[in-house]
Amino acid sequence: MGALGAGIAALGAGLGIGLIGSKSTESIARQPEAAADIRSAMILTAAFVEGAALFAIIVGLLDKLL
What we know:
Radius of gyration: 15 Å
Transmembrane segments: 40-62
InterPro entries: ATP_synth_csu_bac/chlpt, ATP_synth_F0_csu, ATP_synth_F0_csu_DDCD_BS, ATP_synth_F0_csu_sf, ATPase_proteolipid_c-like_dom, F/V-ATP_Csub_sf
GO molecular function, one term: lipid binding
Family: Belongs to the ATPase C chain family.
Largest sheet: none
Structural class: mainly alpha
Membrane topology: Multi-pass membrane protein
Oligomer: single chain
């Protein structure tokens, strides 16, 4: 079950980062003057998603080992 949980966490992170990228690109297209603010918020949010996914993957793999 640990490997399944790790895979689901990786899949969720990939989908989340894809949505972040698509919505930020759409936002920049609508308001090009706010591109710097949108880009910095996008990078920060993607880093949070990656951190949460890494934590979930580690927990899932630890469940497999222990």
